[in-house]
Design brief:
The complex is a heterodimer of chains A (304) and B (247). Chain A contains eleven helices and 14 strands. A six-stranded mixed β-sheet of chain A has the order 6-7-8-3-9-10, sandwiched between helices. A four-stranded antiparallel β-sheet of chain A has the order 2-1-4-5, with helices on one face. A four-stranded antiparallel β-sheet of chain A has the order 12-13-11-14. In chain A, helix 3 packs across helix 4. By secondary structure, chain B is mostly helical. In chain B, helix 5 packs antiparallel against helix 6, helix 6 runs antiparallel to helix 10 and helix 7 runs parallel beside helix 11. The longest helix of chain B is centred in the N-terminal third of the chain and has 33 residues. Chain B: It is a multi-pass membrane protein. Chain B: It comes from Alishewanella agri BL06. Chain B: GO terms for molecular function: ABC-type transporter activity.
């Protein structure tokens, strides 16, 4: 019984197709990261799963129960935790009061004091929400998402506005939740976050999952390395080096994409003995991701 | 989960949050009370004081009911707070009843304030039964205005809500005869007064002290009740429309 199982989900606003047949499934203790450029349909996907937006067709199963439209049963909501991107609480209530209110909604959740602790806001418990910093607000919203000890957790851009320390603390908490068997759906703009947390990454582009796999698998899809150097060779000469896919130059700094970095470097050093600042790097997930989302668009443009 | 606890906490924290907003509390209470002191006490003799106690009492309870619902719900929507609550197991009636309870607390505060001023400084003398009945009428009369506020809160943006509430509140009060006795309005406006729930509420209140226009109580009750039911239907429809759309 998967916490989340989605099949052929579609949604269009008028003639604008936002989700064009999305399939995702998520097991207990799995962190799924949904990546995609703005407008890829991430937000609509999350809203549809949560029952805030009605899908046009397709199936959503939560803990094995097929969902009809936007209704989510009381029993189901007891098992969900949600941290939305836009989430602001009553500015006039204190951290403790918000926790007290939210904890009352759940049958087997955390107490108010435990939630304050989860948010790491013990020293700000009597401070009103309106007076918290952006990062502190995010931490409180994260704690409230955990109020019911959820089995399925939705985190929409959870570390937006957090400093490095708070972000790492939240990552640590998500890793602990995963160990406890919580299934997590995460959207983020930070690729480092996806690399750190995700068991699998689904790349959403133009309403479709264009790639899915572990962070390593996605990187493997992009089997090339980046070679950086300074050299007196011209672009044309560089492009003729073995295994080179692409040449770009920013002032003196040359960047080569190579299918086989060793061959490229050997030939480069033979051709120019004065090469300096040589550097070989694996491709960053960010580039892998950009490449994946650019490809279908480029293909479409060519088809058009 | 203890359902009673949810309702209790929801109501308590809604009230607490409002009480910590002096910019809401002070005008809500001061506006009708100052009007009443000015027109009902300082510039009037005994009879008009009682009449205006009822009409300014109606005016007083309408304000917080409409503003609390409209502005707070519009702002809860704008900030995603309502969405977050809807995704939680919180029963929606707990949220709405909490707001209604807050409106009742304000109504009660206004009733106590204005009754005290009327008795102490306005020379208003009523039987105990009349005081109590009038208080009950005003408390129950909070409902239709809370529903109007709810509809506005569910449909308007948080920026538009305050202005639109004023646009509904002030003309409705004037046209129902809450500022000036309705007999002083032009005939056309007097007849148009029948469409406002506030007119019927004030007439029921005035009946308690025997100063109404003399229409049957049942007509006012019928019209007030049916307009409340109509407003409730529109409110439910607005809520459904809201939850069906992307918020």
């Amino acid at each position: 019984m998967l916490p989340l199982d989605v099949q052929r989900l579609t949604k269009a606003y008028g003639s604008n197709t936002v989700l064009a047949g999305v399939d995702i499934s998520l097991a207990a203790g799995e962190v799924l990261c949904v990546l995609g450029p703005n407008g890829a349909g991430k937000t609509t996907l999350i809203l549809t799963l949560l029952g805030l937006v009605k899908a046009d067709s397709g199936e959503i199963r939560l803990f094995g129960n097929q969902q009809q439209g936007i209704t989510r049963s009381q029993a189901l909501r007891q098992q969900l935790g949600v941290m939305m991107q836009i989430g602001s609480l009553s500015a006039n209530l204190s951290v403790y009061e918000q926790c007290d209110l939210f904890s009352s909604y759940y049958a087997h959740g955390y107490s108010a004091a435990e939630l304050v602790q989860l948010a790491g806001l013990e020293s700000h418990a009597i401070q009103r929400f309106g007076n918290l910093s952006g990062g502190q607000k995010q931490r409180l919203l994260f704690a409230l998402a955990l109020a019911g000890k959820p089995k399925l957790l939705f985190l929409d851009e959870p570390t937006l506005g957090m400093d490095v320390e708070a972000r790492q603390a939240l990552w640590q908490q998500v890793k602990q939740l995963r160990q406890q068997g919580v299934a997590v759906v995460l959207t983020t703009h930070y690729l480092e976050e996806a690399e750190q947390l995700a068991d699998s990454i689904a790349v959403l582009h133009q309403g479709r999952i264009v790639a899915k796999g572990s962070p390593e698998e996605l990187k493997a899809l992009m089997q090339y390395k980046v070679v950086r150097c300074r050299s007196r060779l011209t672009d044309a000469e560089l492009a003729l080096l073995p295994a080179v896919l692409q040449v770009s130059r920013k002032q003196q700094q040359i960047t080569l994409h190579s299918r086989h970095a060793e061959q490229t470097v050997r030939a480069l050093l033979d051709a120019d003995q004065q090469v300096t600042d040589l550097e070989v790097r694996p491709v960053a997930l960010e580039q892998a991701f950009l490449h994946l989302t650019q490809t279908p668009a480029t293909q479409q443009e060519q088809a058009a | 989960m203890n359902t009673v606890a949810i309702y209790r906490k929801e109501a308590w924290y809604d009230l607490l949050s409002i009480l910590r907003t002096p910019a809401f509390v002070i005008p809500s209470l001061a506006f009708p009370v100052v009007f009443y002191v000015f027109f009902g006490v300082l510039f009037n003799s005994g009879g008009a004081s009682a009449y205006m106690l009822v009409t300014y009492g109606c005016f007083g309870i309408m304000g917080p009911a409409m503003f609390n619902f409209a502005i707070n719900i519009a702002s809860d929507r704008a900030h995603g707070w309502l969405t977050l609550k809807r995704l939680s197991p919180m029963p929606v009636p707990a949220y709405l009843l909490a707001k209604f309870a807050t409106a009742l607390v304000f109504s009660l505060a206004i009733i106590v304030l204005m009754f005290s001023i009327a008795a102490l400084f306005g020379g208003v003398r009523l039987a105990v039964g009349q005081w109590l009945l009038l208080a009950v009428v005003l408390l129950l009369g909070t409902l239709p205005f809370a529903l109007i506020g709810l509809i506005l809160g569910l449909t308007l943006s948080d920026k538009a809500a305050p202005a639109v509430v004023n646009l509904v509140y002030l003309p409705m009060a004037l046209l129902s005869g809450l500022w000036l006795p309705i007999q002083m309005l032009p005939m056309l406006l007097q007849q148009a007064g029948w469409i406002w729930p506030s007119y019927h509420l004030s007439q029921i209140g005035l009946k308690v002290i025997g100063m109404d226009q003399g229409h049957a109580l049942s007509i006012h009750l019928l019209l007030l009740t049916s307009s409340s039911i109509l407003l409730a239907i529109v409110a439910v429809w607005s809520f459904k429309r809201l939850t069906g759309e992307n918020t």
